[in-house]
Amino acid sequence: MARKATRTKRKPSRKKSKSRSRSYKVLLWKIGLISLLLFSLYVIYLDMRIKQSFEGQRWALPARVFARPLELHAGLPLSREELLKELKLLRYRKDAQPEKPGSYTAVRDGVVLVSRGFRFSDGEEQQRKLRILFSKDQVSELRDGNGQPIHALVRLEPVLVANIYPTHQEDRSLVQLEEVPPLLIQTLMAIEDKDFYGHLGVQPTAIIRAMLANLRAGRAVQGGSTLTQQLVKNYFLTSSRSLWRKFNEAIMALLLELHYDKDEILQAYLNEVYLGQSGAQAIHGFGLASQFYFQRHLNELQPEQIALLVAMVKGPSYYNPRRQPDRARDRRDLVLDIMAQDELISAQQAQRYQARGLGVSQKAPPTKSPFPAFVDLVREQLKRDYDEADLRSEGLMVFTTLDPLIQLKTEQGVRKELSRIEQGRGKNRGKLESAAVVVRIGNGEVLALVGGRDPRFPGFNRALNARRPIGSLIKPLVFLEALKLDQQYTLASLIDDGPLRITLDDGAEWAPANYDQQSHGPVLLGDALIHSYNQATARLGLEIGVPRVTQALAQLGGRTDVRAYPSVLLGAVDMTPLEVARVYQSLATEGYRMPLRAIRSVMDARGNSLQQYELDVRQVEDPRYVFLVTAAMHEVTQDGTARSLMQLLPKGLKVAGKTGTTNDLRDSWFAGFSGDYLGVVWVGRDDNASSGLTGATGALPVWAHVFRDLHQESIELDPPQGVEWSWIDRSNGLRGDKSCEQALRIPFIAGTVPQGSSACTRSLDGTVKRSWNWLKDLFDSE
Amino acid sequence: MSIARYLIPLCMLALLSACATTPAPEPVESSPEIATLVQQADDARQQGDYVRAQSLLERALRIDARNPRTWYELASLKLDAGALDSAETFARKSLRYSGESSREAAQNWLLISEIRRRLGDASGAKAAQQKAQAIGRSLK
Predict the structure, then answer these.
(1) Rounded to the nearest 10 degrees, what angle do helices A262-272 and A286-294 cross at?
(2) How far apart are CA A268 and CA A664, in angstroms?
(3) Pairing with A68, which of A193, A199, A255, A699 sits 20 to 30 Å away (CA)?
C-alpha cells in the first residue's frame, strides 16, 4: 500500500547515507593512515639526511701542512731579528704588556711573548709567557712568566704553510665548545636565539612573531629561526627560502634536538655557520672566520670583534666588513648595544668599543701556500703512504722540516743575485731562472726548496723536476773512486793534464778541453780537482774505469740508470737539484747515506700520531776517502774555482764545495756545505740558451747569499782515524814543510804519505836559520 | 864549530817533537736540554715506545748533531729494536765524535761488539771487545 511504500523508500536512503558516511570515514582513515605513513617515511628520510650532515661534515677537513716549530732553549743559535720574523709569520701582535696568547713585545736584548700552545704528536706544548734574551746571535736566557729559567726545550707553534683542500674547497678551523670565549656564545644567543637551551628546536612563538613582523613590514625583517634551524639551513645552504624549505628545516631541527644534546648542537653550529666567502672558498665557523677577518685565534679577539662576527651571522655578504664597512659597523654597534642591554658588557664598555674601528685586516689572507715548491715535495712524499682522497678530507696534520726563515733567505738570494747578474749582462735580462735546495746535514732534513725565481707562483718546480747536465759536479766522485785505490793514488799523486784524444765505441772522437783552453802538464791529483781540470780528470777517470764512477753515483744516492760513457766523467749526466743534493749529502756526512726528508711526522685531526718519518742512516763509503775528497773541496773554496767565497763568507768559516759549469755555459751549478748545512744551487735559462755564466759567477753568489747568514760551524777538518796530514810541495808532490814556497797541507791515508822529500826542505841554510831562531827564542824568553 | 855544538841537542829535540801526541779530547758534557731529552727517551724505551724514544733523540740531534752520547743512545735503541745494521751505523757515528780514546769510545766498541755477536760475527765481536778493553786500559 502507499505508507508501506514510503517507509520502504526511506529505509534504503538512510542506509545509503550511513554507509556513505561510513565509507567516507573509512576513506578518511585510510588517507590519514597513508599520509601518516608517508609522512613518517619522509621524516625518517629527513632524519637520515640530517644525521649524515651532522656527523659526516666533521670529517671533510683539509690536510694542514706545518713548518718546523722553533725549539727554544738557552744556547740556541738565533738572533732577535730572526725570532721577530718568525713571530711575524705566526701573526703575533705587538702589545706593550703581553698577556693574551699570540702577543709579544720587544725588550732590551730580547723578546717577551705569550705563546699559543700547540698539540704536537709527541706531547702538548702549553701556552705560556716567555722571556727570551739574546747575546751575540744566540739565545742566552730563557725564562718563564715568573722569571724562572727554563731548562727544557720550549716549542713555539709551527707556522702553517699550506692547506691541502678537499675538492669542494671547504675548510674549518674547528673549535671545541670549551675553547670558545663565553662572551661570543652569550652574544650569539642574545642576538639570534635567546632561549636556545630551553626550546625544542623550533620556537613557534618566535615564528609567529616573525611572521607578524614580516607581514607588517611587507617583507622579511625578522628571522624567528633558532640556532638549530640555522644549523640545518647551513648544512643545506640554498638561497631558496620557500615555505617548503622552512618546513623541512623545522622538522630536521626537531629531529636534531631529538638525537643530540644542546651542547653538541651548539658546537656544531659554531663550526658550521656560514660567515663569508673567499673566492671559491666558503668560510664556515667562527674559528675560521676569526682567522679570515682578524688573523687571530678566537680566544685572541676583542669584544668589538666578537660583536662584529655575531653581527655577520644575519648576512655575511650583506654585512661584509671589507666591502660594506658602514653597514657592518652599524650592525656591530647595534649588537654592542644589545650586549650592554643584556649586561654582558657595561654601558661604558659598549661606548668605548663602538668608538673602535672594525679591526678587520685589509686583505683576506691568501688561501694558496706561500711555499708551493716545498709543498710539492711534501705531497710527493705523502703520496707514498696516503691516497689523495684521505689527504684532502681527513684533516691530517703534517709536520714538515721546512725552516721558513732559511726558505725566505734562499728565495731572497735567488731574487737578488739574479737581478744583479742580469743588470750586469744585457742578454739575460728577464731570462735567468734558478733552483735551490738547502739540507741539514746532520739528519737529512730539507730546510728550504726553491723551484724558480718567482717562488709564490706554483709553476714549474725546477728543484724537483728540471734535469740538467751536472758538469763538473761529477768530478769529486771520479777522484773519490781513484783515491779508494789508495796504493795507486793519493791527493799528491802526479797526473797528466796534457791534451787527451780518444776514439769512442761508435768511432767518434772525444777531446775534452780545459776551461781555460790550456794544458797544465803534470799536476797534483788534488789540484786537478781544485782547479777542475777537464783533461786530467778525464784521463784519470778512463784509467780507473767509467763504471766505477757511475757505480759511485748510484751508491751515493744519485741516479742508478746512467750508462758508463766517457762523457759521464765530465758530467754529461742530467740531474735535478734535489738529486744532486742527495749525492752531496752522502759526501757531507763523510759517507753516510740518508734519505732527504721533507716530513717529520703525521698526526690525525684528533691528535693521534699516525706516522713518524724516522732518521735512517746507512754507511756507504769509508769516511777516510770521503775526508780526502772533502779536504780537496775545501781547497776549491780557498784557492780553486770557488775562491771568490773568501770575500763572500764570514772570516773563519770553512766550507767545502764544487762549482759546475756545462758546455757553452748553459748550466751554472754550485754544491757546497759547511759543518751543518748543505746547499745546491742551479742557475740557467729555461730556453736552454747559453747564459754566459760559470758555476762561480751564477750559482755560487746565490749560495753565498744564503750561507753567509746561517748559524753554523765549519766543516770538520779533524780527520777520522787512519788519516794523517802532511805538508807537500805542490810543485812536485813530494814531502815539504811550511817554509817551502808552494807548500800545502794535504791529508793522506795512513801509510801513503810520499817517501821522498822535496828539495825545498833539504836546504841546510834553511835548517840552520830555523834552529837559530828557535834557540834565540829560548834565550829571549828568559 | 858553532853548528856542531848545537847539532846534538837539536837532534834530540827533533826526536822529542816527533813523539808529541795530540791532547786527549775533552769529556763530553751535554746541555741540560739534551740530558732531559735523552732521559725522556730512555723512559720511553723502558716502556717499549721506541717510536717516541727515537723522536726524542732526533730532537736532541737537532740541538747538537755531533753529540756522541745522542748517537750512542740511538745505537742502543736500534739494538733493542732489533735493527742491528742501523745500530752499528749509529755507533760508528758516535765514535766519530767521541774521540778515539775516551770512555764513550770504549762504550761504543762494546756496543758494536754486542751487535756483531748478535749478527753471528764472532771474530768481529771479539775484535771490537778487544778495542774496548785496550781503550779501557789506556784510560787508567
Answers:
(1) 30
(2) 64
(3) A699
Q: Which active-site residues of A does the annotation give?
A: 192, 472
- Tell me which chain B residues have a C-beta less than 8 angstroms from the C-beta of A590: 96
pLDDT digits (tens, 9 = 90+) for A420-440: 999 986 778 889 999 999 999
Residue B23's pLDDT band (boundaries 50, 70, 90)? very low
List CB contacts (< 8 A) between B89 and chain A: 592, 617-619
At B64, is the pLDDT very low, low, confident or very high (cuts 50, 70, 90)? Answer: very high
Q: Compute the nearest-CA separation of A122 from chain B (Å).
A: 7
Cβ within 8 Å of residue A771, ≥6 positions away: B6, B10
Contact, A664 vs A699, CB < 8 A?
no
Tell me which long-range contacts A319-326 makes (C-beta under 8 A, separation of at least 24).
Answer: A320/A276, A321/A293, A321/A358, A321/A360, A322/A360, A322/A362, A322/A364, A325/A358, A325/A360
The answer to whether residues A479 and A540 touch, using CB atoms and an 8 Å cutoff, is: yes
Side-chain-facing half-sphere of A726: CA atoms under 13 Å: 23
Choose the closest CB to A151 out of B32, B74, B100: B32
**Cα A750 from chain centroid (whole Å):** 45
Res A531 pLDDT > 90 = yes
Is residue A619 within 8 A of residue B91, CB to CB? The reply is no
Q: Which of A202, A274, A204 is nearest to A236 (CA)?
A: A274
Task: Tell me which residues of chain A, numbers 75 to 134, contact chain B at a CB-CB cutoff of 8 Å.
Answer: 75-76, 121-122
Q: Is the pLDDT of residue A229 over 90?
A: no
Q: Which is it for the CA torsion A323, A326, A331, A332, positive or negative?
A: positive
* A660 contacts A635 by C-beta, under 8 angstroms: no
Residue whose C-alpha cell is 674601528? A357
SS3 A536: helix
Short-list A590, A695, A577, CA closest to A636: A695
DSSP state of A436: E
**ipTM score here?**
0.79
Closest CA to B132 of B95, B107, B98: B107
Q: Which residue has the cell 676583542?
A: A302
Side-chain half-sphere exposure of B39, counting CA atoms within 13 A = 8
* Percent helix, percent strand, percent coil in chain A, to nearest 5: 45, 20, 40
Cα–Cα distance between A339 and A644 in angstroms, integer?
Answer: 68
Residue A116 corresponds to which amino acid?
Answer: R
Which 81-120 residues of chain B touch chain A by CB within 8 A? 85-86, 89-90, 92-93, 96, 100
**HEC states along A737-751?**
CCCCCCEEEEEEECC
Q: Which of A76, A600, A612 to probe by mutation at the B interface, max B CB count within 10 Å?
A: A612
Q: Compute the nearest-CA separation of B120 from chain A (Å).
A: 20
Q: Is A396 on the interface with B (CB under 8 A)?
A: no
Contact call for B65 and A443, based on CB within 8 A: yes
* pLDDT tens sequence across A620-664: 999 999 999 999 999 999 999 999 999 999 999 999 999 999 989
Best of B96, B112, B115, B135 to disrupt the A interface by mutation (most A CBs within 10 Å)? B96
Interface touch A153/B59, C-beta < 8 Å: yes
Q: B102 to chain A nearest CA, in Å?
A: 14
A503-511 contact pairs (CB < 8 A, 24+): A504/A565, A504/A566, A510/A566, A510/A567
| Planar angle of CA A437, A438, A439, nearest 5 degrees | 120
Of B10, B66, B90, the CB nearest to A771: B10
Q: Is the Cβ of A609 closer than 8 Å to some Cβ of chain B?
A: yes
Using DSSP's 3-state secondary structure scheme, residue A47 falls into helix
Task: Calculate how close chain A gets to B6, using CA atoms only, in Å.
Answer: 9
The stretches of B47-121 forming alpha helices (DSSP H) are 50-63, 68-81, 84-98, 103-119
